[in-house]
Design goal:
By secondary structure, this protein is an alpha/beta fold. The protein folds into two domains: 135 residues, Rossmann fold (3-Layer(aba) Sandwich); 111 residues, Rossmann fold (3-Layer(aba) Sandwich). The protein is built from eleven helices and 14 strands. Helix 1 packs across helix 10 and helix 2 packs across helix 3. The longest helix has 19 residues. The structure holds D-glutamic acid (DGL). Pathway: Cell wall biogenesis; peptidoglycan biosynthesis. It holds the Pfam family Asp_Glu_race. InterPro entries: Asp/Glu/hydantoin_racemase, Asp/Glu_race, Asp/Glu_racemase_AS_2, Glu_race.
Length: 266
């Protein structure tokens, strides 16, 4: 390394599982000069049905360790279920760190819908958050918003991403409530409000009773992160590889292989 080159701090991307990879792949395109550390709290997965106070405590505790160990430039919380619960607490607990959040894309959906019928497909946790209700109240009062809390889809998506067989019936029974017909109009936008779901967008498209726009916020999150991470022309990524950390300490073979496919050392 020459004297003119600085070692750049990495970008940390956090999710309960492997759904945050949908955000990581976009973030990498926009920040090629940075190293990435992907954290999957697989020991706590799925977050969707956790009791709120216990989950809050867990995530704040994890971040105390993660920040001390990895010294990131910025943390992307690539998990709606986590950020809608604990985003404000993370910022209060670690004021020196920049957190980029992931929240249901209700505002852009409300701006784009023609029929006025929008559905939000998310975990049960995200659906019941005050944060989600506030987004609807603030940005989508003119719309009919159907919140669909799926118990199983994050798990199904994990299986699908790892290459396991997933039945059409199982997927359809999780998404069919998103399709609403009212006074001659039909749902035209479904917000993918869990970072696991964009991996299954092709399956959703194939099974949908009619075509809708499946809104994936990953690129917008990556753009937000890029705007907060200083551009450093002479900077280098110090280790030359990106890292995936699993809180279980023990990802299975299929998961390790998946990480390799994403260029991450697990
Ligand atoms: N990927 C997470 C999200 O965006 C949630 C998955 C889970 O732990 O249930 O909400």
């Amino acid at each position: 390394m020459t004297a003119a080159q600085n070692e750049l701090k990495p970008v940390l991307v956090f999710d309960s599982g492997i759904g945050g990879l949908t955000v990581l792949r976009e973030a990498r395109v926009l920040m090629p000069e940075r190293g990435f550390i992907y954290i999957a709290d697989d020991a706590g997965f799925p977050y969707g049905s956790w009791e709120e106070e216990a989950l809050k405590k867990r995530i704040i505790g994890l971040f105390a360790e993660l920040l001390a160990e990895h010294h990131p430039e910025v943390c992307i919380i690539a998990c709606n279920t986590a950020f809608t619960l604990v985003g404000a607490d993370l910022r209060a607990a670690f004021p020196q760190m920049t957190f980029v959040g992931t929240v249901p894309a209700i505002k852009p959906a409300a701006e784009r819908t023609r029929s006025g019928l929008v559905s939000v497909l998310a975990t049960p946790g995200t659906v019941k958050r005050a944060y989600t209700r506030d987004l609807i109240q603030s940005f989508a009062q003119q719309c009919h918003v159907r919140l669909v809390g799926s118990e199983n889809l994050a798990r199904i998506a994990e299986a699908y991403i790892r290459g396991d067989a997933v039945s059409d019936e199982a997927v359809l029974s999780e998404i069919d409530q998103c399709f609403v017909e009212k006074d001659g109009s039909k749902t035209d936008i479904v917000v993918l409000a869990c970072t696991h779901y964009p991996f299954m967008a092709n399956v959703f498209r194939r099974l949908a009773p009619w075509p809708v726009d499946w809104l994936d916020p990953a690129e917008a999150i990556a753009r937000r992160a890029r705007s907060l991470v200083p551009q450093a022309a002479d900077g280098v990524h110090p280790d030359n590889f990106d890292l995936a950390v699993f809180t279980s300490g023990n990802p299975d073979f299929a998961t390790r292989r998946l990480m390799q496919g994403f260029g991450l050392k697990a």
